[in-house]
Every structure is written in C-alpha cells, then in structure tokens.
Amino acid sequence: MLEHLLSGLAVAFSPAVLPILIFGVLGGIILGALPGLTATMGVAILLPFTFGMEATPALVMLIGVYIGGIYGGSIAAILLKTPGTPASAASVLDGHTMAVRGQAARALSISAVASFVGGLISTIILIAIAPMLATFALRFNAPEYFALALFGLTIIASVSSKNILKGLLAGTIGLLVSTVGLDPISSVPRFTFGNMDLYSGFNVIPVLIGLFALSEALSQLEKLVGNKHTPPPKFDHKLLSKQDLKDMLPTAIKSGLMGTTIGSVPGAGADISAFVCYNEAKRVAEDPDEFGKGSVRGLAAAEAGNNGVTGGSLVPLLTLGVPGDAVAAVLLGALIVQGLTPGPLLFAQNPEVVYGVFSSMLVANVIMLGIGIFGIRFFCRIIEVPKIIMIPIIIFLSVVGAFAINNSMFDVGIAICFGLLGFVLNKIEVPSSPILLAIILGPMAETNLRKALLMYEGSWSFLYDRPIALAFICLAVFSVYSTLKINRRKAQ
Amino acid sequence: MNTILKSMLVAGGMMLAAGASAADYPSKNIRLVVPFGAGGGTDAVGRTIANSAKDFLGQNISVMNRTGGAGAVGMSFGAQQRADGYTLTVVTREIASLPQMGLMQHDQDDFKLIRLVNLDPAVVLVAADSPYNTINDLIAEAKANPGKVKFASTAAPNFYLMALEKDQDIKLNAIPYNGASEAIPAVLGNHTDVTMVTPGEAISQLRSGQLKAIGVMSQERISYIPDVPTLTEQGVEVVTGTWRGIGAPKDTPDEVIEILGKAFDDAMATEEFKEFMAKGAMTIHNLNAEEFTQFVKEDTVALGTLVK
Amino acid sequence: MFNRHVVFPTLLLIVSAVVLVLVAQFDAPMYQQDASVDAKFFPAAIAIIQAIICVVLLIQSKSQAAVAVKEKIFSKMALMGAAYLIGYAILISFVGYLIASLVAFVAYLLYFRIKKPSYYIVAVCFVVFIYYLFGQVFYIALPEGSIF
User: Fold this and answer.
1) Cβ–Cβ of A341/B65 closer than 8 Å?
2) What is the domain extent for residue B222?
3) How far apart are CA A491 and CA A483, in angstroms?
4) Partner residue opposite B66 with nearest CB, options A199, A408, A457
5) Is B297 within the bounds of a domain?
6) Given CB atoms, is B191 within the 8 Å cutoff of chain A?
7) B286 SS3 class
8) Which residues does chain C have within 8 Å of residue B174's beta carbon, measured at their own beta carbons?
9) Which residue, A137, C14, C93, C97, has fewest beta-carbon neighbours within 10 Å?
10) What transmembrane ranges does the database entry give (chain A) (predicted)?
11) What separation, in Å, do the N-terminal and C-terminal C-alpha atoms of chain B show?
C-alpha cells in the first residue's frame, strides 16, 4: 500500500499532473465562491474534456475542482455573507460576524486551516479504512436516513439562539416550502397549482441565494442611505493566533471525522455535515453562548465538517461503485469512460489509479491550504471595494447563479421572493438559516419515513429495532434536551 | 390596429423563420436541453453526442440542464423554444408516459423527432447471496406471498415493474427510491430484495459480482452481459427498457432537421461515441426521424395500457 | 397599532389555515401504494405546528407589547431596492442578460448620482467579464431575452 501511495505521490507532483491539479483546485475555489455555481456543475462541465485525457490526470483534475469547490463557498460566506454553496451557510454564523468586527483575515485563515484539517483527515480515513466504512454505510437505509434527518432538524433549535420559537417558526416555513411539488412517494401534486415549474419543488440554491445574498444586498442598500458616513470596518491583517489554533484543532479533527462518516453515507452531503458538526461543537462547548457571535470553534466545526465530506463521499464510489452524491456520480461517469470499473475490482485491477487519486487528494488539500492562506490579502480587498459598487455586483452575480443552476428565470423569481422574505424576517429577528436547513432536511425526513413504513408494512418498529436509527433518535432527543438546558441557564 | 400589428409581427416572425432555414444553418451555437441533472446517464449521453456532433455541424453545442418533474419541465421547455433549430432537446421515454398520466402538458406531437440514439433494456437484479436465481423463482415467491417481496423502484410509478406485474398478475411491495444510485445500495445492503435498472447503471456491481442478474428484459441477450438470459427465454414474455433520442420544436423546418439528422448519424458513428457507449454498457440504437416517430407512437400505446 | 410582532404571526396563521384547506383537496394517488403516513400527513402536521407557534408568539407579544418599534420594516430605500430587483428580472426576460445588466448597472449609478467615471468603467467591465466567463469559458447559458 505504501509503495502504491509513494508512486501515486510521484505522479501527483509530476510536471504533467501538478499544474492540472492546481488549475482544478483554483477553478473549483472560484466556482464555489460564486453563488449558484456548484462543484457538481464544475465537474460536469469539465467531464467531456477528460475523455481525451489519461485516467489519472482526468480524475485528478475533477477531484481538484471538487475539493476547491467545497472550500470556495466559505470565502464569500465570510466576507460578504453570501454563501457560495449551501454547505458554507453554517460558516456565515461565526465567520461573517468575525469579518464585520474587522477580523476578516483571521476568519479566512481559520476557515482555510479547518478545511485543510477536515479534508486531510477524511482523505487519510479513505485511504486507510474505505472498505470497512463502506460496509457500515450500506447499513444505512430509509429508517436510518429518517433518524439522521430528524437529528439534523433539531439543529434548528440550536442555530436560533435568540428566540427558539422564532427559529422554529422559520423551520416550519422551510418545511412547508419543501413539501411543494410532486410528492416523491405517490406522485401526488402538492401546492403546485398546475404550474409545471413547481412540480419538482423549490431548488435549494435559489432559496439560498435569496435568503442570504439578495436580502443582504437589500439591507446594505438601506444602510448605505441611512447613514452615509459609517466608516468601513477597520480591519487588521492578523491571521489566526496560536491560541486560535489550539482552540480549533480538537474541534476541527472531530468535525473532520464526523464529516467523513456523513459523507460516506450515500445521500447525505456537505450541507448536512456542516450543520451537524456545528451543532455538535456547540453542544459540547463550555461557552455555547459564544456560538454565532464569532466563535473560533463554531467556524472551524462548520469548515472542517463540510470539507470532511470530500474523502467520505468517495468511499461508496470507489468500494461499491455507487455514487454517494452528484459529484461522485460525475466521477463515476469519468471512471467508466476511462474503461475502469469502480467497485472492489478497481483496487485489485488498477491500484495505480486508486492510489493516484488518493495521493492527489492529499496534494489537493495542501494546494487548497496554500491558496487559502496566500490568497487572504487578495480576498480581503473585496471588503475594501466601496459598498456602492459591491451591492449591484452581488445582485448581478446572484441572478446569474440563480439562473444557472437550472437555466430558469423562474428560479430567479424564487430567489427574489426569498430575498424579500429574508429581508423581512431579518427585521423581525427571525433567523433565516433554519429555513435553509428545513428545505435540505425536510424532504429527507418525509420520504424516508414513508419509505421505511412501506418497507415495514406500516409498522413503526424500525424506530427501535435498528441500532443506527435508534442511536440517531437518542442523539436528537439529547440535542433538544441540551438546547433547552442552555436556554434555561441563560434565562436565569 | 391591434390586428394589423399582430399580422405584422407574424409576418416578421415568418421572415425570421425563413431566414433561419436558409442554407447557412447552423450559423451560431446550438443549445441542447437535457431534462435531467448533471451527473446522470441522460446528461452523459447528451454531453457526449453534443461533443461528437459539433465537429460535423461546425458549431458548438452547449448543454443546458433543465430538470424537474421527472423530465417534464425540461422537455416542455424544449418544446416551447423558437423553431429555428438552435434549441434541441434530449427526448426520453417520459414523453410517452407523463402526458398520459396528466403530469406533462406537451407530448410527442410538440416535437419533430430527429434521431433515436440509445435503447437500453431493464435488467432484474438481486443481491449476490439472494435465494432467487431465475425470474421464475421471483415470480413464484411473489405469487406465494403477494405484496411481500420488496422492490427497490427507481421511480414512482415504475413501468418496468408494472409490465411484469401485469403480465404475471403478481404484486410486489414497490418502495420508490430516487434513481438507480439509491436503489442499488438498497439491494446491496439487503434492505430490499430486487430492483430493475439498465445494464449501464449497474455495470460495476455486475462485473464485481456484488449483484446477480436474473434476467434481462430485451428480445435478445445483450453483449455486455452475455450470460444473462432474457425473460422471454425463461418463459416470461415481458420486454421493456428505456430510450433516449433528440428532438426539435415541432415547427422546425425540414431542411434543418435533415442537416441535424445527418450530423447525429455521423456523430453516432464516431469511434469516440461508440467507445463511450460501450464502456458505459449502453446500446446505440439509431432510428431515423420517421422510424423514431413511429417507435414513440407505439411505445405511447404500450405504456397507455399499463397506465390505465 | 400595526405592530410587526403581531402582524407577521397573524399572516402566518392565515397561511397555515390556507395550507390545511389545500391539503384537504389533494388528489388521491393514482399509481403507487402508499404508507399509513400519506402525502397529506406532513404538510398538515407542519401547518398545525406552525399555527400553534404563531398563537404562542401572539400571546408573548401581548405581554410585552410596550416595546414600540419606531423604525419602519420597509424603508423607502428597501422598497426601491425591491423594485429594482424585480425590474431587473423583468428587463432580463425581455432583452437578455448582457443588455439588461448594462442598463441596470448604469441606471443604478445614475440614481446615486455617481460622477466618477471609474465606477462606470468598472460596471461595464464587470458585466462584460461575467458574460464572457460564463458563455465562452464555462459554456454556461446566460438568460436570453424574448426580444434579443
């Protein structure tokens, strides 16, 4: 194994592959940072260009885009409060708060280091125990997904720190929105009013763009006129301190491990992972009140959590030949076009490809860290751009992003509606991240509950006779309990 | 006044259309609407044929994913575009099923079909250690215990399963998953007993032996899995599968359709495309415009008997 | 009189009621057997929970109604912003991304009486750059208008 890995590293550093890898990571970061453009889109666009390439460079480039794309979303989330992907929405909570205080460089460096730690850990786990993890992941089915989603939904309570009721209200809005469209089990149209565009429901990307980017643009616009003479936030170029590093490392490592596990389960991706890790970090923290107010650990948990998925999602792809998410599905296509058979055979027949992929993932994470740290000076310039010119730029990029996800002006309309909704909610102190969380997790909870009931012919016994499902349900109960406890402590 | 304006607009539009059909077609980039998301099989076929055909047309073909409603959104969108040959659509089997179920407002008649590209049968798959070794084992079990055999369905409703159920008068417990990438792990993890997908969707599990194919739903055995007998060989007369082709809005001029048809013929004959399809275990099935139109008509009738 | 902490929960209460009425009118499933928890269960359950939360919030706001909020929900500028967004989207659907964005950006700068030419140059460069990046580099289609 070690020799394969070493020869893989030699390939990754060879002059033919390294530039491709750097190009891939950089391109991924740019795509990820632009709202609406996702890693999936980037990988799918590049796929036809890989047909003429050899297997290893082709896969290396696609994986570079993937790793960069997951990270890139956070830069925009921290600096502009406009997460580039749903996976980086959890980074807004603490990262943007830091940036507003003038600590943009600190937030960006924490994000880069945490992403690196998460990505590295998940790659190492992928290399070490992929087959074992895959066997574990196969035990997940409808009951487990339902329990996982239920646990995820309890996070709504913990991200709505000020007033839990208002957070829950936002959650119900999101859940209702998520039921629009053809019901996935029985194909009954729900709240579609005969409109074809509503048949598959609301896409999460336009909602994200509206709730975060457009509503932020509107409130900036308001501030612009309200008091013209606000000095731009003074910010230092200080990166993270040694103390920060000490504070964040345990959280980042734990989140990386959790992210890998979540990623290895087909159907649960970086967005869920980021929120789950954030919630877990808050639950165990001694100072849960700090979360949402610029906590180092909160940001690190979200960042390590979403990048931890990168290695995990390759587990089912490489060991079972089953794509864990949309990016993995494109990678599956790329492998097959190269004449390779993903699955157990791949390790036996083409170890050079497998270990080429593994080692280039290691290198890609290092490149990501490098770009992330050395780019900070450049990224911070974005804050210095006068607001008056930044606002229309955010608006135009948002519109392009909302359109590009499905080539639909209807989605642009959705983004604008949710932009107005997010703006109003902001004014009445209702948090908007529960809406996003509910739209991601609501369909997962509903369809899997109903699938499980079909599977068990109407019996609810799956809730207690499947150990993994039971574990998640206990976690959900525990999560609600500890949030209530924190709140009571606060009230006293 | 209003009518004058309208007729002027119509006349102008006709002139524009006439201009488009002139000999200089294609003079700009062409869009290909794919009604399914990036990363799926339809997307891959669309992107590859676009990539191969662009050399014969001398213009770029950019792929545009427009997803939703199991393909309905993208195909309806494609049907409503300007009929100038610059917007084409990947037409899938859903065009025959969805309109009859009231889930799509446009149907075959809203398109001029250009070429059928790909036709894949469904394969009946069980886990490697499953007690079922032939389709008749499965049917016997389903007859003994109606509604107990768990079927991982790739869509709701599932026409592969409905065809078998109707023919054999059996009932399985169909659990709807979101596509083959969810249905296959459900069988691998022994959460369900059986699934039906196309060979390309399960080729890696078939090659590695994680899944066992107990029958292929085509007329003849297929080259990618030559050891798997057809259902017909096993005495069960069910043939079903899925297909993908290319269409243009219904008013597209015939000369344009002809140019495009020729280009797609050439594209399907390229080594690049053939190799892509072979490696993905997908079957190229080239039907010309008339054959394709007739084919869809017959399939619509066949699906109609299941839907009713 | 119109306290935002009263108006918003009231509105959502009405939404929940409408949802419940709509749920009752869902079609019966045609092709697929369904679980004991059917297509109506989730929307109905969520609507009821939402209604309960709204009622609790209304009671809460009664007990602490003394805190009057002076600032308006929609300042004039925010309304302008909303109108701008909608106008921009409508413009795109007529003339396509490139022209609509150029027009909208320049109109925005004129509205704020910006005199520095550099801002206008940035605006034009930005729009053209995006247009080029998406269309020519990424091959991602940008919105086309019905006229152009």
Assistant:
1) no
2) 123-234
3) 12
4) A408
5) yes
6) yes
7) strand
8) 32-33
9) C14
10) 6-26, 33-52, 58-80, 107-133, 145-161, 168-186, 198-218, 326-347, 353-376, 388-406, 468-484
11) 49
Q: Do B60 and C32 touch (CB under 8 A)?
A: no
Cβ atoms of residues A433 and A222 within 8 Å: no
- Contact of A52 with A73, CB cutoff 8 Å: no
Cβ pairs bridging A and B (under 8 Å): 142
Give the H or E element holding residue C36: none
Contact criterion met (CB < 8 Å) for A221 and C126: no
Q: Are B69 and B103 in contact (CB under 8 A)?
A: yes
Measuring CA to CA, how many Å separate A151 from each of A156, A218, A453, A475, C48? 10, 33, 19, 7, 21
In the three-class reduction of DSSP (H, G, I as helix; E, B as strand; rest coil), residue A239 is classed as: coil
Distance, in Å, from the CA atom of A316 to the CA atom of A138, rounded to the nearest integer, reads 9
Does one domain contain both C27 and C41?
Answer: yes
ipTM metric: 0.90
**Into how many domains does chain A fold?**
1
| A313: nearest Cα among A84, A64, A134 | A134
CA angle B183, B185, B189 (to 5 degrees): 125
Smallest CA–CA distance, residue A189 to chain B, in Å, is 9
Model confidence band, residue B1 (pLDDT cutoffs 50, 70, 90): very low
Residue B253 lies in a domain: yes
Please report residues of A whose CB lies closer than 8 A to that of B77: 408
Least trusted range by pLDDT, from A39-53, A184-198, C74-88: A39-53
pLDDT recorded at residue B125: 95
Q: Are A436 and A89 spatial neighbours (Cβ–Cβ below 8 Å)? A: yes
Q: Which of C32, C139, C140 sits opposite B157 (nearest CB)?
A: C32
d(CA B21, CA A52): 34
Beta strand spans in A197-343 (E) = none
Q: Show the domain range for C96.
A: 74-147
Domain CATH number, residue B101: 3.40.190.150
Q: Do A45 and C54 touch (CB under 8 A)?
A: no
Are B67 and A200 within 8 A, CB to CB?
Answer: yes
Nearest-CA distance B65 → chain A (Å): 6
SS3 call for B262: helix
Say if residue B44 is in the same domain as residue B113: yes
